[in-house]
Amino acid sequence: MNSYALGALEEYKSASNSSIAYSDPHTLILRLMDGALERIAQAKCAIQQKDVKNKGELISKAISIVGGLNAALDHEQKTEISANLAALYDYMGMRLAEANVHEDISKLDEVSKLMAEIRSAWKQIPELTQSK
């Protein structure tokens, strides 16, 4: 994992009580995704409660985590999957920024749905590799 991804992990760790230090890389990515989903859900509540300060901080943290997930991709391999995920993470970051500016819950929901789909696929990877 590169320094940007590790920074995102530190961001998640600082707001989490979990013991991340002993997790394998696959689990760390799942936890980053969980952290992004959690921050997005909290930001949605902040918007509903008209809590502008927390909304901005939470969306900023979610953007940082998504950026860390993007940075954790193996960009040197230049695979189609890596390129597609990078584009999707860029899109998610843009939509989160728009949600922040416009206080748009629908954009948060969109990113949450996309992240949940990626997480679901990522979670199946160990199962797929063990069954071969």
Brief account:
The chain contains five helices and no strands. By secondary structure, it is an all-alpha fold. It has one domain (3-130): Four Helix Bundle (Hemerythrin (Met), subunit A) (Up-down Bundle).
Q: Provide the CATH superfamily.
A: Flagellar protein FliS
Mean pLDDT: 86
Q: How many domain modules?
A: 1
- Taking the alpha carbons of the first and last residues, their distance comes to 26 Å
Number of helices: 5
Can you describe what's shown?
With 132 residues, the chain is mainly α. The protein has one domain (3-130): Flagellar protein FliS (Four Helix Bundle (Hemerythrin (Met), subunit A)), CATH 1.20.120. It contains five helices and no strands. α2 (25-48) runs antiparallel to α5. The two termini are 26 Å apart.
What attributes characterize this protein structure?
132 residues, 80% helix
Describe the secondary structure blueprint for this structure.
Blueprint: H1 3-14, H2 25-48, H3 52-72, H4 80-102, H5 105-130
